[in-house]
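Re: the 279-residue chain
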Amino acid sequence: MNDPRLASVLQAASGRIQAAIAAAADKVAVQLPPLALSATSGTVRAQLLDAERALRTKSQRILSGFEQAMREQVEKVCQPSAKVGQLATAELDWSALSLVDDDEIERGVMADRLGQSLIPACEEHLKSLHVLMAVLLGEDASPERNPLRPQAVAKALLTALGKADCDEPCCQTLAAHIGRLLGSELNAAYGVIVQEMRQQGIEPRAPGLARMRSGSSTHGPLSTAAGELPGTDTAGGGSRPAPLLDSPSSRSSALNSLASQMAAHQRAAQALSDMFGVA
C-alpha cells in the first residue's frame, strides 16, 4: 500500500522537475544559434537552426506536453495496486494493441539512452531520492515505479517533443543538447525534493525494522528482556550464564564423553611412540 503522502509529494516534486526542464531549455535556446554559426558541416548547421527554431516557436507546447506526461506517470503510480494490475492486463490485451510507428519506437530508445546519460550528474541526491521514495511506495517499491527517476524524466521529455510535432532529427538534436545541461539542473531539483521530503518527516526505515515489528526471526527466539540472549539466567535480578549441566544424567554423560576422548588420545600417543621407538 502506498503512503498517504505520496500524491502530494509527487505533485510538488513534479513541479521542481518541470522547472529544471524549463531552465535547461532556456539555456539551450541561447546556445544553439552560436553553435550553428560555428558548425563546419552544413547538415549540422541546418539541424541546429531547425532545433533552435522549434524551441523558440514551440517551447510552450513542449513544456505543456512534458507536464502532462509527468502527470500521467504520477497518476499511474498513485493508483491502488489492484487498479494498476487491471491496467497492466488491459495493456497486454493483444487484440487491443495498435501498431506503433517507427518514430515512437525510436523516441523510446532515445529516452532510455538519455536517462542513462543523466544518472552520473544526479548521483549526489539520486540514491537518497530512491530510498525515500521506497518509503512512500511501500511494499511495491522498486526503482522502476519511481516516476521521478532520470529515465522517467527523459521519457516524458521525448514524449513532449513528439507531441509538439518535432520531427525525428529535431527531437534528437533537442534531446542531446537539453540532456547536456539537464543533468545539473535535475541534480539541484533532486536535492530540493529530498530536503522537502525530510521536512515532512519522511525518513528511511531502519534495516530489519519490518521483521522486528512482525515478531518473526530466522535466528531463533529472543527473550523479552532487553539485551538478554538465549541461554541466560536472569533470576535474582542479574544476568548470568545459565547452568550448562543442570541434571545428574547430563553430568554423567559429559564425564563419560570426556573419558572416552582422553582414552583415544592416549592410544594415539602410544601408537606414535611405538612407531618411532620412543619409550
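The longest strand covers residues 232-233.
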